[in-house]
Amino acid sequence: LYKGASMKQTLIALIFSFSLLVPSGGTGYAQDFNKDEKWWRKTAEQGHARALPNFSILKKSQGGARDEIHPPMRNWLFKTAKQGDASAQAALGFMYHAGLGAVQDYKQAVKWLRKATEQGDANAPFKLGFMYEKGQGVIQDNIYAHMWFNIAASYGNTNAVKKQNIIAKRMTAADISKAQELARQCMKKKFEFKAC
């Protein structure tokens, strides 16, 4: 699950992060941005790709710039994503989408989220569905939004089913059927289908 990152380091990072959200004393740990940063950095440096967005959010919550991820950590994330790590690819997609740790760039977000989806990341197609629903980096299209939510649901993302139902209310029966067929084709052909 943590790909080389020490479970202890990750848990410590989570404890300190949670202490930032809970009134003082709620976790038994004092709020300490420096300790939180230290443990998220250690976790990220040991290979846990999802630690980087947490680190970036932490920096932003302290009033820092959105792109305040240290260059070695950013380089590590890009390198890991280019080597095909689905968690790193999804993390890049989320970072580009939100402008956390990178300049906001919806087209780059779509690129990395598609790569993560191809490898079975359940959160990446959910975000793609959201982007198609809103027209962020892509042409707004409810059929494709439904298709991506369908794929996310098939990967086990429970929130995707709720989004599918919401989108379906704005679609015809023929559109829903088309979206479902596109999702089947994309998954059957391992996303090498032209419509994916």
Indicate the topology.
Elements: H1 7-21, H2 33-45, H3 51-61, H4 71-82, H5 86-98, H6 106-118, H7 123-134, H8 142-154, H9 158-168, H10 173-188
Helix pairs in contact: 1-2, 2-3, 4-5, 5-6, 6-7, 7-8, 8-9, 8-10
First-residue to last-residue Cα separation? 28 Å
Rg on CA atoms, Å: 18 Å
Q: In percent, how helical is the residue content?
A: 55-70%
Unreliable residue stretches: 1-31, 57-67
Structure class: mainly alpha
Which percent range describes the beta-strand content? under 5%
Mean pLDDT across all residues, rounded?
A: 75
Annotation, overall tally of beta strands: 0
H and E string = HHHHHHHHHH
Largest sheet: none
Describe this structure in words.
With 196 residues, this protein is mostly helical. It is built from 10 helices and no strands. Helix 2 (33-45) runs antiparallel to helix 3 (51-61), helix 8 runs antiparallel to helix 9 and helix 8 packs across helix 10 (173-188). The model is unreliable at 1-31 and 57-67 (pLDDT under 50).
Which characteristics define this entry?
single chain, 196 residues, 10 helices
In short:
66% of the residues lie in helices and 0% in strands.
